[in-house]
Amino acid sequence: MAIGHSWTKRYWLALLLLGVAGLLMHISFWSTPAEALMGHDIYYIWLEGKRIIVGENPYARILAGDMRANDKYATYFPLAYLCSALVQKAGFPEFSDWLYLWRPVSFLCHLGIVALALKQFYSRGLWLLGFATAALLLLGRWSIYVTRVHHLEFAAIFFLLLSLLLLKKQPRVALLAFSLSLGIKQIAIFLLPIYLIYLWRNSARDRRIADVGIGFLIILSVPVLTSLPFLLWDAEGFFKSILFSATRLGSSHIEGAPSIDVTFSQQFDWLVGLRAKLLMLLLMGLVYLSCLMETVGLFVASAMVMMIFLYFNSVLFLQYFLWPLCLVVFALVEWAPPWVKQDPG
């Protein structure tokens, strides 16, 4: 009993210290004026909400484009845009109002990521390593970047990590959390096969098809339900907007570190769009096959898939680095054996 009580006190003390440090870091960016963030995604999320309120379809603008050059199209599922519209209809119409509400939510999600990481490491008795890892996720450069530009990453990653942690004991809740992560930002869509393979492998033989089908519907629930009005409104615009991330120009971001398809597209002009993703998808397919045929942990497989995305996707943004980083640290503790205190006698 004393050991468990000591564990709890140590965990909450560490989380309190990290929470204070994280809050100070976040607050240091909360004074950034709204005008300075108008070129970032968080502004365009607010703007799409404003367009919805006045009756404009945020996904229709892409129909005038060529599916290559970006004009700040609405490329996310509509959950964030609908939240923006709801906030504005609730009496907070200005972009600065949206920021005042979003900043503490983003901080709480960031602290949630830290709390989950700390708990996983502490459950293995890795006190010092756990604290160092939690501080890395809290105060590292990629977290600072996401905090500075107010991206959606912390919220999407928190629900993804929560989903993976709950999948074995509370699968339905875990699948709903994954669905919410995709609804916020769909980068983790590449992990969908890992979830379906897990459900297949861990279901009774006579229940496999039903369990996978139900699980698939739960995963799709948030993105599909929030997307239905826009699908009925303009299905072509919606699908083209969502697919734009796979076809857009790959050399327009962080040109000093091009992916292999961008490098070779200078010699082979046909190596663009979906064709340029074939190597990335092939490598991800090997990870999926490993999940099906080998004993691979959920976090290990997920970390590998997101690492492949980071290294081979044609377009690279700084916020992408945070996704595999969070999964890698959980993969490390996933392979660590449970800590058992040895009796000195």
TrEMBL record:
Q: Which domain of life is it from?
A: Bacteria
Tell me what organism the protein belongs to: Shackletoniella antarctica
Q: Which UniProt keywords apply?
A: Membrane, Transmembrane, Transmembrane helix
Q: Which GO terms describe its molecular function?
A: mannosyltransferase activity
Name it.
DUF2029 domain-containing protein
What Pfam families does the annotation carry?
ALG3
Transmembrane intervals: 100-118, 125-144, 150-167, 174-200, 212-233, 278-311, 317-336
